[in-house]
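During the reporting period, our protein records have gained a structure token line. One record among many is quoted in full directly below:
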Amino acid sequence: MKLRIAAANRQASIQMGEFTGGEYVTVGELPSSMANHSRKVSVLPLVFLIFYEVSGGPFGVEDTVQAAGPLLALLGFLVFPLIWSVPEALITAEMGTMFPENSGYVVWVSSALGPYWGFQQGWMKWLSGVIDNALYPVLFLDYLKSGIPALGGGLPRVVATWGLTIVLTYLNYRGLTIVGWVAVCLGVFSLLPFVVMGFLAIPDLKPSRWAVANLNDVDWNLYLNTLFWNLNYWDSISTLAGEVENPKKTLPRALFYAVILVVLGYFFPLLIGTGAVPVNRELWTDGYFSDIALIIGGAWLRWWLQAAAAMSNMGMFVAEMSSDSFQLLGMAERGMLPEFFSKRSRHGTPLIGILFSASGVILLSWLSFQEIVAAENFLYCFGMILEFIAFILLRIKHPNASRPYKIPGGTAGAILMCIPPTILICVVLFFSSLKVMVISLIAMAIGFVMQPCLKFMEKKRWMKFSHSSELPDFGNQEDTRSLVH
């Protein structure tokens, strides 16, 4: 729980987005200069937390080559970031510095559309995050099964999935600062084998292989879903904004460096893999980079890459679980969830949020890789539409609000920037299968009912809800109604 130390004569209502000079400190700590700031996340760990929220390396991009061939796969990871990743990262930088608290995108939508839609945003994004996290044990074991065939199925795979989930959940419990520096170490270890593989592959590179394409033989559903999954979730870091050291400066810088790292981390390995090895699209599925490493460098490089893939999936798991669990804590501090979600462990981590997120991962771990990706993308698309609407509405309704980082171009530029990713969202939704659509719509319907039920329980006092008084209410002088209820 955060305690805001402010001047005694602080006004009851605060101009939207303007914060007093108070500092956030943990309850039980001393304020001001005596506060312990060692637990705050700095730029470098934040870059790698974003890297693992979004990417984690090229593990899982292989399906783009299977779906569309080398040329479209390479172009996809150059063009798609411009259409999707850069706009999403820019919006996250502006809104995350405007609302530097753990509810993240939930408070963005609440401020623009009201608490009901803020709750829906929180439900859809948390659920898509938990679904996303269920992928990483699957990918982890898919990379190891070529060296350890017993992990391909049955009881050994189930035991390995549960064991991995429990160990990584405990790592999240120990604290976000630990998770951040673990992410740095895992990131360096995960990317190094691709650098080595790049040098070893130079004599075998044939640029003509990069131009292979057949537009009549493209699985657009698999292609778009794989691209979308590998290049989204830039906004997830907003739910950790309350744990970041000087978020108004640190967050935009970290997002800028992370965009560069993510794009290079995808494009370079694809360039090596498709250029150094004869293209057989049927072989390009998750885990194929380890086979390419065997061809280029031998067994030692294969084992190194498999270990890197395992470490990468561990990094993505802990980063995603941190974001999901702190989001639940932020929603509880805003009175959207029962108060017990806001309780922190002795390490400062949201214990109940971590347990809920880990339980969701275990329940979903039986699904296949492609089913998980499609279901996650469907829910994520609707959440992003709400974010775009909130971003534009806040620009229109509160143009003069304090924005430590502001995207240039005015309101018209903001609207134009949101058009290409919105079109892309519609395309991804169009290619969704009926099964994924039905499951996702049922999940959304649960959220529509859950919020009124929670409000009813609050009214009947069956559960305790509380709005943290330390969090600022966002209003303006013309409209005294609080933007965040």
Summary: The two ends are 19 Å apart (CA to CA). Residues 1-38, 475-485 have pLDDT under 50 and may be disordered.
